[in-house]
Amino acid sequence: MSLFAELKRRNVFRVGAAYVVIGWLLLQVADVLLDNFGAPDWVFKSFAALLILGLPLALFLAWAFELTPEGVKRAEDVVESDSITPRTGKRVDRLIVVALVAVIGILVAERFWSAGDADQEEGMTVGAPAAETEPVDAPDAPVEKSIAVLPFADFSPGADQGWFADGLAEEILNALARTPDLKVASRTATFAFRDTSQSPAEIGAALNVAHILEGSVRRAADQIRVTAQLIRTSDGYHIWSENFDGSIQDAIAIQEQIAFQIARALKTAMDPDALAEMLAGGTRSVEAWEALLKAQALLQEPSVIDLKPAAIERILASAQRAVEVDPGFSQAHGFMANFWQQQMTPVSAFYAATDLAPAEVRARFDKHIEDAIRTAGSEAERLAFQADRAWVQALYADRIAYLREAVALRPEQTGIHVQLGRALIEVGEYGEARDILMKAVALGRGTAPELVTVYQFLHRVDAEAALGLSDRALETDAGSLQVLYQSHRVLLYAGKLERAADLARAYVLRDADSEFSHMLQLRQACAEGRQGDADAIYARLDGDVIRWLMLKTLGRDAEAREFLRPLDTPARLYALSTFLAYPFFTPDDYPLLADTLARQGIQRPLPTRIPFACEEDPGHE
The whole model's pTM is what? Predict the structure, then answer.
């Protein structure tokens, strides 16, 4: 008898097939159970290695031994006429069939199981406001090459890696946003979808995207597991899903793999050679990247809003660590430059938040913005940094030129359009500013955070257009303080006093004592002619962030003018110039600023008046 025939008679082939099929099933079960129990990655790898090593042993046992009615015997001791291998072979065949049915069942379930009804990991679809209205000029169905990157869930044992999970998702989003033919929902819109039970179809309808990426991060010591799933929103179909395991040093490489595989799955034009430059701001240092993520996460903590010195020190220390580890990390330099720019911006919550002299703050901004420009990973990023430098240097025409170039390079990005729209308002080009801001709306997804970013500037040049955007934002997120605050002002500009009063009451129920609440209440009091109430609100003001706005709203123009007078110096000209964003600001009252504008050929229209301002009180002149 030939060797092949003998192998077949002794059921060696059947045993091998059964072993492979059952081994695959065991691996699937082990992957799920070990992951849920938080077992280290080496446990699963060791189990898989044992199964592989067991295959030759199983084949040897099938060859060398035979099952008989009297028990297991050596094959050579069994007379062929007494052998029951045919009967045993049929049992093995039935076992293989059952196992194959189980395999097919698992594959079918994995392929067609609705992500909305059975997420692979609890909490992976993260949450948001209810369905949004359609964006301006939005098609009936979302563009096929469109995606929203949802914040990744933190499944780490200590549940203390949320900042890392958010940073990982944001870097993937940034990389995909640079893919020329892929529409990517903004971070503001997608990160609103945290901790919700909404289905992919509902999220897709809200963001007007054809796909969503959701995922999770599990980190223990220096080991990480990242799970990512690309889902089609129309039917919940999983287009692509994969686990990525490695050390923390592999984090940036994992980002690259995820971004590229998504872009490839959606058949986009992502250039693999350019991908490395897109992620992590050009850094290859995981330590630097983590330090920046921590600084960004700290910036979102409530203690920062209260301007607690300890929180600010932690932000600066973490960001500084990022640039020390990798001096070529453009995003870290940009973060630091923006922080110091906010220190010089009077209407920012971070204005003068440290004890440093204005000249030292400016010097720190100059250093980091130059480093950011030098290390920028793309021309569009470089132009954005150059625009910020020109702004602080009071080179208004140059700033607009840089932003126009950036828009030409990244015509699909809404944020650049909003920046250009604001810059055009500052130089008095109100008509073009309106067109650019409306273009930003058309490019966006119509979410409340995106809309409010636009109409907080648009109402200054077109109150009616801003009113339409405000109504849409209120329909989708009427509980947001930012939406309420900006919408209240829009309603007053549009002359809708009763509706504004309703919003004012809603805002005060949520925030009665902040400076912004006082500003909103003062506006409503002036609009209703309650001069005494408005004066009383101003008397309670503690701080200077909104003092000029309050004085202008009260009609106390002379006081407002003198309040800003100390800023009309070379060292603080940028701070003064930020008020150019208000059409009712009068630059001619400040000789240095007026001369700077004139030298650049900028002629703003005559200043307007706040339509709901209190009547000017001569006693305050």
Answer: 0.63
